[in-house]
Every structure is written in structure tokens, then in C-alpha cells.
From TrEMBL:
PROSITE patterns noted in UniProt: ABC_TM1
SUPFAM superfamilies: MetI-like (SSF161098)
Main localization, broad class: membrane
Domain ABC transmembrane type-1, chain residue ranges per copy: 57-241
Keyword terms: Cell membrane, Membrane, Transmembrane, Transmembrane helix, Transport
Example GO BP: transmembrane transport
InterPro entries reported for this sequence: MetI-like, MetI-like_sf
Assigned protein family: Belongs to the binding-protein-dependent transport system permease family.
Membrane topology: Multi-pass membrane protein
Membrane spanning stretches: 65-83, 95-117, 123-139, 182-207, 219-237
Protein name: ABC transporter permease
Amino acid sequence: MSGRLRAFIRRWLVFIAFLLLWQWVTVSARNPYFPPPLKIAEVAGTVFTPGVLTGDLLPSLGRLALGWLIAVVVGVPVGLALGRSPVITDYVSAMFFFARSVPATLLVPVFLVAFGIGPRMEIVTILWGTIWPILLNTIDGARSVDEIKLDTSRAFRISRPHWVLGVVLPAALPKVFAGMRLALSIAIILMIVSELTGVASGIGYQLVNAQGGFLLPEMWVWIVLVSVLGYLSNLLLSAVERRALAWHPGFHPEQLSA
């Protein structure tokens, strides 16, 4: 049995032990605020109807993916350009750090007034919170290009586009993926926060409705769903990262094992 398989089995055994402990503690305590996992699973079968899946789950995932992808499409090219332009970076760094320090959750009322109730407000909220880790990590990665690679590219007179795509971007990819992984976690949080007020659909909307109606097992169904979404999205991005960085000498795929 390989070490990777053993680590996989060990992690899932720990997770199963956690579920059994959770079941035993909640059954023993009989606290209505903390239902057992089996009760949550039972209620989940009644919550996830076709209407909920198409009217709440899929729209939330769509807004999550769109906001995060826009942040990647904007943040990576801008980060590469700024990372190789120290003078420009010095001019805008203060502005970037000031803007990054403003939490996206604090701007939800502003975005609600500016963009109105609907998907645009939610996407902009996700975009604001996710673009900063991607942008700043990309800048840091672009700055770390080996001088030998730069000298070699100059010696061979590589064109600017080939230099960016063939030298700078590959060297920055580890930092880029680190920013993308962090941004994905933030995007899930902001997806929920942006759906708590002023919307009529989505995971956050269903969560706050269950809470307001004192439907505690149903509320826990949505909480667990968010955790599962976070795990699956991280698993998918880790698989992409593992393939994209398989060539990198400093890459350790075992650190990404889920």
C-alpha cells in the first residue's frame, strides 16, 4: 500500500470517528440546537428538492464561480504586469493595501445601494473580496523569477509575450495557485454573506430562512452543505494545481492531498 493511500485512509478514518463522536455527543446531550448527524442527513433528503437545487443551489454556485473567475482573469494578468514593473508597483502599493484592508462584508450595504438587489451585487461582493489575494500573490510570484532565467531569455531575444507566458507565468504559478486557493475560500464565505439580506434565493437565503423559522435541523443541513462545497471546490482546485505544477521542482503534491 502506497504512502498516499495510507494517508487517504487515515484521514477518512479520523473523519468517520469524528462523525461517530458527534452522533454520540448530540444524542446524549439532546440539545435541540445541535441535532445529530443522522437527523441532519434525514432532513437533507427532504430539503434538496428539484426546485431548491435549480432555484437556490445552482444560482449560488453560478455566482460564486463567476465572481471568482473574474477575479482570476483580472488579478493574474494585472499581477504579472505589476510584479515585473517595480516602479508602478511602488506608486499603487499604498492604494492596494488600503483597498485590501476594507472587508468585503463591510461593503455589502454599499454594493446593495450601488447595484441593487440581485446577482450583480453578490458577484461584485465576491469579486472585491477575492481579487486581492490573487493579485498580491501574483505580484509576489512575478517578482521571484530567477535572474538566470531572465538573462537566458534576453540572450535568446525571446519576444515579450513569449517571455511573459513562458518565463514569468510558470515561475509565478505556485504563488498564483496559493492566491486562488485562498480566494476560493473567501468566495464561499462572501457568497453566503451576500445572500443573507436583500435576496430571494440562494444558499444564504435558505440558511437565514431556516434560522428565522427555528428549523434547526434544516439550518444545519445548509451549514453542512457549505462545508461540503468548500471541501469539493478545494479538492477540484488541488487536482488542477497538481497537474499544472507537476514539473515544478519545489512542488510537493502530498501537501495538497485531500
